Sequence to fold (576 residues):
Amino acid sequence: MMDKTLAELAQGLKNKEFSSVEVTQAHLDRIKSNDGNYNSFITVCEAEALAQAQAADAVLAKREAPVLCGVPIAHKDIFCTEGVKTTCGSKMLDNFISPYDATVVKNFKQAGVVTLGKTNMDEFAMGSSNETSFYGGVKNPWDVKKVPGGSSGGSAACVAAGLAPAATGTDTGGSIRQPAALCGITGLKPTYGRVSRYGMIAFASSLDQAGPMTRNAEDAALMLNTMAGFDPKDSTSVDREVPDYTADLNNDLSGLKIGLPKEFFGEGLDAQTEKAVQDAIVVYEKMGAKIVDISLPNSKLSVPVYYVVAPAECSSNLSRFDGVRYGHRCENPQDLEDLYKRSRGEGFGSEVKRRIMIGAYALSAGYYDAYYLKAQKLRHLIADDFKHAFSQVDVIMGPTAPSTAFGIGEKSNDPISMYLSDIYTIAVNLAGIPGMSIPAGFSNGMPVGLQIIGNYFEEARLLNVAHRFQQETDWHMRRPQ
Amino acid sequence: MSLEKSDVEKIAHLARLSLSEDDIPVYAENLSNILQLVEQMDQVNTDDVTPMAHPLDAVQRLRADEVTEANQREKFQSIAPQVENGLYLVPKVIE
Fold:
């Protein structure tokens, strides 16, 4: 029952081929024996998972159960989980036992889905390699000398290594898609507002969005069916009907118009990665898709714009960590200011401090117009580029990341070079549209991701386009040895 | 934009972050590099562009002013560093 997809596990549970307790125990055993190699989990919820599995088996035995009832998954440690340590990869929250469930976690619990544990991540989701985690880096299952990407690196690695059939992730500038690409799995960042952010520890509130990380597009559709929906507890949640994301998976692709932005195939793109992406495009052409050359002229500014908007919002969001109500508090504070400063100085790592300071600077008196306002204006131009493109094409394709996974330590002392590894994913968050990454081949033995970008609320189309590719190719079936 | 040591100290104070003396020059260099990257924004004229407030042009949703949450003070304070009689304790602020 290991290495099965969510859909296969769900079917096996319905057919009584195995029980939820058996599936859950098998995954817990594999985590215990193998995760020492990857460090993909911060917390394993053995007792809770087995209790949830028993409850799921009872539901499965009695009546019509929800589709995913009894299937185990992992949650990124950014999602608050009641009674379980929720760290966000930070020393600041090393002692934080969440008193409530995030809406995403609650939705899965109500659907009878079992939580195996909480996955490792870059501290407060700030990073592209998982190296900023207080709990140590995660290793890429395809080559343990390489990073898994980030910030949802633990989620990507545990799915790639077969420790969990699927996991949740979050994506502020590429944090689902880039690690999915680097670990050879499928990842989807939905439209901004599609999935509730309630209980998902905030980084940059106008960009953050949760999504599924899975073995294939069908599983991503099943996960999104459970995750998506209006939530009155999230003020930016969108009140819009949730379609059945599995309904359109098999739609024919003949006549599909695919836009290839010239800006995604220029300088800085690794040649082997480009070759794999071009080969994937040929597969689509054979399925009857039409290729259209397009341009996203302002997308080149997405990295600078992001490094104003995201730090500005993070400096505001992370002001809640003050050593007073929860989280780390320094020893023997002299006065209130000392309590704030040392609690935060000790609790946050250097990348988080860098971003808080950039944000505080960009928002400080006299600089707001030059930085935050300027960035929000450019963000409009970036979104308009996509709007124009989607008047010509149905989806946009390109590489997810400029290269395959890089070496551990290779970029950790050079923030700017690290930031540029998200060059193709960031514009999607700035515009608020959905994007996916699916396995599309290999370069020197490491997985390459194809990015598929859609218009607002076109998740079903992205999943359809991804699923049809996975019917024609077997890249998504490959496993690290 | 190049930041001096004193700039970093000022920003760290605004953000209520203590930094070790040795780290300050490193942050000055890192932050200057990031600001240099950010300056690429000036390549594009945005005089006639409206800033984007929300990708879907959504407006703030309002709700009826009703109590919807139960009081869970004890539960929430059980994870606090220091509480007394239902209050969070901090070092003395007023003499």
Summary: Chain A has 15 helices and eleven strands. The longest strand of chain A covers residues 435-443. The mean pLDDT of chain A is 97.
